[in-house]
Amino acid sequence: MYIETKLRSLLKAISWRFFATLTTTIIIFVFFGRLDLAIAAGLIELVIKIMVYFLHERLWNKVKIGKKKIEPFVLWFTGLPKSGKTVIADKVYEKLKKWEYIPIERIDSKDIRDLLPEIGFDRESRKLHLKRVGILIKILQKNSISVVASFVSPYKETRDCVKEMTKNFIEIFVKASVETCIKRDDKGVYKEALEGKRKNFTGVSDDYDEPANPEILLDTEKLTIEESADIVFEYVKKRFYKDL
Amino acid sequence: MYIETKLRSLLKAISWRFFATLTTTIIIFVFFGRLDLAIAAGLIELVIKIMVYFLHERLWNKVKIGKKKIEPFVLWFTGLPKSGKTVIADKVYEKLKKWEYIPIERIDSKDIRDLLPEIGFDRESRKLHLKRVGILIKILQKNSISVVASFVSPYKETRDCVKEMTKNFIEIFVKASVETCIKRDDKGVYKEALEGKRKNFTGVSDDYDEPANPEILLDTEKLTIEESADIVFEYVKKRFYKDL
After folding, report:
1. Searching chain B, which residue's CA lies closest to the CA of residue A65?
2. Which of A19, A40, A179, B114 is the most exposed place for a label (fewest CB within 10 A)?
3. A224 — contact with chain B (CB < 8 Å)?
């Protein structure tokens, strides 16, 4: 979030004066037909009005009228391990950050571990964990911050729970078949799961409820990371920031 | 956080025009001595410049120059149970919220329990818990949000840890003797602690390291809640928002 500094007010005053005095001088010239007087009046106006404009800006800085509170959203990326959630979410976050119009935070199942203690991967633990993530998002949204979140979040029930807790929840289903995910698996997590070394592994030894009506479906077998990120970014702009 | 709406730009244009056209008309009148022409030129200016001003505002809305990123702070209220931390912190939060210039969040040992699971009151648990609080504050500050936090936080070590993790950490020592706190104890927590029903109770069965150099010391045996809150609020304004 930003504060309007005095420097900004001054720069605006000068920039405005350029356009405004030009207009005034032309108006006077058209009315009186005398360029010398038109320019003289313009010069006087130049000096006086820069000061008046500056004070006008400072005054408006105290007035809240017409300032619209930002409506924060959540981009919730769900999908199998290795479907591409994190990498696409990272890219979307980068784009939104660079865009600069809204405050935005990134939450990933990995970074969240420092804040929220690790718990198990059984159904109840996953539910509790994502409920806590929901509380965190709520705190952020209360302060106008939107969130890019990526979690396997395999159960419809838990995704719905976060959806209910938060505002403008956008479910983004990052789709890839288990076979594709296994092919992409550079860390060998699927291998370990298939060998039984990892319990409750989504897609192997635990269910994944495919979203029935996601706001956005990204088929990563057909779309590149860049294309997927663009789709999400454009969706956000169209849906929430038409007015900018 | 807020967005500058088109309505705001329009209202500013109209408000500006009132002052500016008045100035122009006076300048023309002084130069040419003809009130009729001065008013006619003023009227033409009125119409043209409202449009030019509006466009100028919209243009500046895309420009970031002179917008200063808000420097978020933490007001960290520490003190014995029943010293008055929570009630003073609540009042300060209310004041800052009403002030409207900065985004502000309130964190209390009580509300935080939904997000961060309850852990014990032994030294290690307290340290871990406050470290997590520190991580949460860091996330909020990254998004320009300042925090009003109230925690017993009895150990110097843990307070220093949060201080190091965060920006503009203001330690506020809410002072009251154990005797005074016992007198204020409407819930009987001290009684339970003295009877041995509560373990590791700060001030009874666990140490409280008094802050050696707190930024603000509030002696609640001498100051009312309102006075204490005013002191903190004025401190924040003086230290961080001289320019507003």
Report:
1. B8
2. A179
3. no
Determine, for residues B45 and A23 on separate chains, whether the beta-carbon distance falls below 8 Å. yes
CATH number, domain of A204, equals: 3.40.50.300
| A170 and A192 housed in the same domain | yes
Q: Tell me the residue range of the domain where A42 lies.
A: 6-60
Contacts 24+ apart (CB under 8 A), A84-88: A84/A174, A84/A176, A84/A184, A84/A218, A84/A220, A84/A225, A84/A228, A85/A150, A85/A151, A85/A152, A85/A174, A86/A110, A86/A150, A87/A225, A88/A150, A88/A174, A88/A218, A88/A220, A88/A225, A88/A228, A88/A229, A88/A232
CB contact under 8 A, B243 and A68: no
The more confidently predicted of residues B63 and B163 is: B163
Instruction: Report the distance separating Cα B79 and Cα B153, nearest Å.
Output: 7
Of residues A224 and B44, which shows the higher confidence score?
A: A224
Model pLDDT, residue A222: 95
Query: Residues 107-136, chain B: which have Cβ within 8 Å of A?
Result: 114-117, 132, 135-136
The reported pLDDT for the residue numbered B63 is: 78
One domain for residues B56 and B109? no
Is B16 within 8 Å of A139 when comparing Cβ atoms?
no
> Do A210 and A151 lie in a common domain?
yes
Same domain, A88 and A200: yes
Distance CA B50, CA B46 (A): 6
Give the mean pLDDT of chain B.
87
Residue B133 resides in a domain = yes
Interval A54-103: pLDDT, tens: 888 888 877 777 777 778 999 999 999 999 999 999 999 999 999 877 88
- pLDDT tens digits, B198-227: 888 888 888 899 999 999 999 999 999 999
- Domain tally for chain A? 2
Q: Is residue B1 part of a domain?
A: no
Determine which one of B9, B83, B146, B153 is catalytic. B153
In a domain, A128, yes or no: yes
| Best residue in B35, B101, B115, B148 for a mutation probing chain A (most A CBs within 10 Å) | B115
Pick the more confident residue, B33 or A223: A223
- pLDDT, mean of residues A187-213: 87
A15 tagged catalytic: no
Indicate the average pLDDT of chain A.
87
Provide the pLDDT for residue B243: 62
Q: Does B85 lie in the same domain as B54?
A: no
The answer, yes or no, to whether ipTM is higher than 0.85 is no
Residues A93 and A116 in one domain: yes
Domain contains B65: no
Write out the two tokens for B19: 């002052």
